[in-house]
Specification:
With 190 residues, the chain is mainly alpha-helical. It has one domain: Hypothetical Protein Ta1238, Chain: A. Helices cover 54% and strands 5% of the residues. The chain is built from 5 helices and 4 strands. The strands form 2 sheets. A two-stranded antiparallel ribbon has the order 1-2. Strands 3-4 form a two-stranded antiparallel sheet.
Length: 190
Amino acid sequence: MVVLNKIYTRTGDAGDTALGNGSRVAKYDDRVNAYGTVDETNATVGLARLHAGGEVDAQLAMIQNDLFDLGADLCRPDMASDAAAEYTPLRMTDAQVDRLEREIDAMTQAVEPLRSFVLPGGSALSAHLHLCRTVSRRAERLCVALAAHDEVNPAALKYLNRLSDWFFQASRIANDDGRADVLWIPGANR
């Protein structure tokens, strides 16, 4: 259980922050950018949930929890030291990726195949889910960049890759199963 008795600590006043293993890095470190953008993704999901209900809201709630798991995973470098840690570090799992894939597959069955690219919009929920999609794609790019020079849990990378697909299909579901999608018309304004 997390207990926060004091919100500010002053420990980051010089521009650095602590990672999950206690090491300190600059606040602009690639790892901090990666998990910070995962947190930003989570905030966009909170906005989308204001327009969601039923099963979609429940799925988004699970995604929000997963995104906190993902942030915890990313803030803890050096997976090789997990066994020696005082407590078992939280890591993303393939089961979380598998759940997203099952949900994506179910949504894909409910919508017509696309014949054009979709513009963000339609319903309020769909527009917010497109924002979730684009922010999660940025989080994925930052995690991939981090993985180019530092260890990142492969399940974390897979989760982020599937997540943007999940948001895309959910945006189509939110647009009357794709019937209210706003389609791109190439060159329409020339």
